[in-house]
Amino acid sequence: MSSEWLWEADEVSESLVLDSGGTVVRKALYRRGKLFQARYFSDDPPSLLARHAREYPGLEAAFISEEDAPAGFRWRFMARYAADGSSLGFITRLIDPTGSELMSLEHGAADELVVISKFWDELPDQDGMLFEYGSDGRNYMVVDLEDGDTLKFSDVLGALAEPDFYADGFALPPQLAGASIPSARDHFQS
Question: E strands within 32-154?
Fold first, then answer.
């Protein structure tokens, strides 16, 4: 038996389907009342793609799974599929012990790295900065999310508490020294 509830904010709403234990198993996302994506909390996309096509014809599907990392961090993986079941890409996210996203690596359908994003927030209730890196790990943009200004990377880097993490797109926080970044594609195919 499952239950469903609706959450709304800023023209985006979600309908959650919970299993009998209260765990979210599916989330339907709506923008301005129109369904645009169904998300499944499972690491087995093949077992659910046929059901998804029947229940949500013509709609993109996303599958989300998590695994623990050292020092209280978590890796969150997403695999996205078009309505016809073809891969749209994969995302690996690093979540810190407080639940904030620190880093995101987005790969295309052929597993090519598209962009690396890192986030820095001075205070939990304020938007901070977005750092974007190319597939070579080099920074090409820093944006102040509070006011939208583009900032100079060299000026910002020296003011950060963990400059080594932000200096290279592939660097991990010092608490994860020696760890490597897991592949979302490999996660869903294992």
Answer: 34-40, 61-68, 74-81, 87-95, 101-107, 113-120, 129-133, 139-144
Residue 115, token pair as written in the block: 């962009």
**Residue recorded with tokens 């508490």:** 161
**What is the C-alpha to C-alpha distance for residues 148 and 116, in angstroms, rounded to an integer?**
19
pTM (2 d.p.): 0.85
C-alpha span between 114 and 184 (Å, rounded): 13
CB atoms within 10 A of CB 154: 9
Query: What backbone torsions phi and psi does residue 164 show, to the nearest 5 degrees?
Result: -65, -35
- The Cα–Cα gap between 173 and 123 comes to 18
The three-state secondary structure class of 30 is strand
Both structure tokens of 107: 């790969």
At 136-166, the pLDDT tens digits run: 999 999 988 878 788 888 889 988 889 999 9
- CB contact set of 71 (below 8 Å; sequence gap of 6+): 97, 175, 176
